[in-house]
Amino acid sequence: MKNFTSVTDVEDPIALIKKAALCKKSPFENDHLGKHKTLGLIFFNPSLRTRLSTQRAAYNLGMNVIVMNIDKDSWKLEFEDGQIMNSDKAEHVKEAVAVMSQYCDLLGVRTFPGLVNRDEDYSEFILNQFIKYSSVPIISLESATLHPLQSLADMLTIDELKIVKPKIVLTWAPHIRALPQAVSNSFVEWCKASQADITVTCPEGFELSPEFMEGVKLEHNQKEAFKGADIIYAKNWSSFNDYGKIGQNLDHWIVDQEKMNLTNQAKFMHCLPVRRNLVVSDEVLDSSIVIEEANNRTYAAQAVLQEFLTSMK
Ligand code: CP
């Protein structure tokens, strides 16, 4: 694996899910692998789970960790080539990333989309600049369009339920702000790679990009989609078609107990953070598996770090 930015970087996604399960069973078994190795975690955007779980994973493997909130703590970066750098941007990404990779053996980066220019976001411009200028592997801590560490943890969580061929429903849910499509794109991508039975339910106009919707069942009637589901995975995302728009009068898409009663006693999942009683009712969230899901972030990250460390030996 050269980098970890998508399920397509992973030779055998099922094997990686199993490796994450083994990391959970024996978290310190490979604590020698990271000796004298340093992980850099670079954040352009806020994080609780990704930041803490990836640090925890690195510590479990005996690694050192450096964390930087690059938007707050470092020089403002220029990303365009050939610029006369006479604005407030004091450093070019070319030097910044090359220097970071002198200090670190692996680099993680979180870079959200602007949700204004779809082509730019879907070209993964910033992530690809990191890949271009880094001399060490890059791990996505959520990029403009994908969140593979989250999805790997989600797949582990689903695997642990031991349901044979579960009916998985990814449901759009309301929000007050425009959110990226990354978690949902990634969830669908990993479900497809795992040959899972996945249905997407969303209001008309909120379908994910054709690349991700291909081969996925689509149901615009949320209640119809919930019937017989074993797993309800809720997430808000802004429109791909009318790029970055949030829609109006869609609060009835909340996941509540009445809708959950239509399912096959489904488990409720969400990547967190989640807004209570907007995305999901208290009742549903309080009986969900979101904490177990968040716990699995550590072992997903650990499996990925372990892959890289093993290949460095
Ligand atoms: N789910 C997730 O990535 O959480 P954070 O944004 O808190 O890292």
From TrEMBL:
InterPro entries: ArgF'-like, Asp/Orn_carbamoyltranf_P-bd, Asp/Orn_carbamoylTrfase, Asp/Orn_carbamoylTrfase_sf, Asp_carbamoyltransf_Asp/Orn-bd
UniProt-listed GO biological process terms: citrulline biosynthetic process; L-arginine biosynthetic process via ornithine
SUPFAM superfamilies documented for this protein: Aspartate/ornithine carbamoyltransferase (SSF53671)
Pathway(s) it belongs to: Amino-acid biosynthesis; L-arginine biosynthesis
Positions that bind carbamoyl phosphate: 47-50, 75, 110, 147-150, 271-272, 297
Keyword Transferase annotated: yes
Pfam families, sorted: OTCace (PF00185), OTCace_N (PF02729)
Domain Aspartate/ornithine carbamoyltransferase Asp/Orn-binding: 183-306
Domain Aspartate/ornithine carbamoyltransferase carbamoyl-P binding: 2-160
This enzyme's EC code(s): 2.1.3.11
Catalytic reaction annotation: N(2)-succinyl-L-ornithine + carbamoyl phosphate = N(2)-succinyl-L-citrulline + phosphate + H(+)
Keywords linked to the UniProt accession: Amino-acid biosynthesis, Arginine biosynthesis, Transferase
One annotated GO molecular function: ornithine carbamoyltransferase activity
Subunit (UniProt): Homotrimer.
Family of the protein in this entry: Belongs to the aspartate/ornithine carbamoyltransferase superfamily. SOTCase family.
Function of the molecule: Catalyzes the transfer of the carbamoyl group from carbamoyl phosphate to the delta-amino group of N(2)-succinyl-L-ornithine to produce N(2)-succinyl-L-citrulline. Is essential for arginine biosynthesis.
Protein name: N-succinylornithine carbamoyltransferase
Organism for this UniProt entry: Aureibacter tunicatorum
